[in-house]
Specification:
mainly alpha; 11 helices; 73% helix; globular; transmembrane helix; transport
């Protein structure tokens, strides 16, 4: 039974890691805590839902569309809104992000009502067993594999491309990046677009595994924040480690104490990490 719990936690933790990648990227490069992050995940989920419902596009195929659409939305929001107050205090950027979240959530409520929906694929209930000791749902395994692929692509972009070098240099030393010719405004817009695109991908996978609604964004923002804090900023491995840690902890806690305590477990871990290691597991030493 312990093996089954750990496997379930790892599979869910992979999704948490993808959710947090976008927030970690934006936070680490632009020093903005994007509290509208969960709303972008929600938009990715509904993009997949409507493509599946209206056009019959398989959700794993629609992943390409949700990433692309959310990337464009994120790029535009940063370039034409956030960029206007990019040099303002953290409080002002938080207020703007909060305003964006309210606008997205209320627009979604008007457009789609508060009904809870689910992407129901024909293969949603299929699974396979490894001997007699663990059963793995096929959809969750496919989602986890896609998280690995997307994470690898992100790692390649950040470490093997000119864009990645621009993003890393801007995060490390803004003034030095400008001196060597980095277009900071464009880099910020692309960074925000990538972060929101990752949120769109997470939304697609979430819509396959769990029910969705226009008001789902708030708790997902908090979960992403917890994962980032656990893993620490400064590395793409941080969200991965944080997501897997949270996923396994929630799986064990839900089994022993009940699913109603899942969020309590998450925020208890957050408080402990903030007390014992404020910069996260992979963050720098104090």
């Amino acid at each position: 039974m312990l093996a089954q719990i750990v496997i379930n936690g790892i599979l869910k933790g992979g999704l948490y890691a993808l959710m947090a990648m976008g927030m970690s990227l934006i936070w680490g490069v632009m020093d903005i805590i994007n509290i509208a992050h969960g709303s972008f995940i929600m938009l990715g989920a509904f993009t997949t839902y409507w493509l599946f419902t209206l056009l019959g596009i398989d959700p794993f195929v629609s992943l390409i569309f949700s990433i692309s659409i959310l990337f464009v939305i994120g790029y535009g929001i940063q370039k034409y809104l956030i960029n206007l107050i990019i040099r303002a205090s953290a409080f002002i950027t938080l207020i703007l992000a909060f305003g964006i979240e309210i606008f997205i959530n209320n627009a979604a409520l008007v457009a789609w009502t508060a009904d809870v929906r689910k992407v129901k694929v024909a293969y949603g209930a299929s699974n396979f067993s490894l001997g007699d000791w663990v059963t793995i749902p096929t959809v969750r395994l496919l989602a986890f594999m896609l998280v690995i692929v997307i994470g690898t692509i992100f790692f390649f972009i950040l470490n093997r491309t000119d864009l990645g070098r621009s993003i890393r240099s801007t995060a490390q030393d803004l003034d030095a990046a400008q001196l060597v010719g980095v277009d900071v405004a464009r880099t910020y817009a692309l960074t925000f677009g990538l972060g929101v695109g990752a949120a769109g991908a997470a939304g697609t996978l979430w819509s396959i595994l769990f029910p969705i609604s226009p008001m789902m964004g708030g708790i997902l923002t908090l979960k992403s924040f917890v994962v980032v804090i656990i893993g620490g900023l400064g590395s793409m491995l941080g969200p991965i480690l944080g997501g897997l840690t949270l996923g396994v902890a929630e799986a064990m806690g839900s089994t022993w104490f009940g699913s109603t305590y899942e969020n309590l477990i998450s925020f208890t871990i957050l408080v402990l990490v903030l007390i014992l290691r404020p910069k996260g597991i992979l963050g720098g030493a104090d």
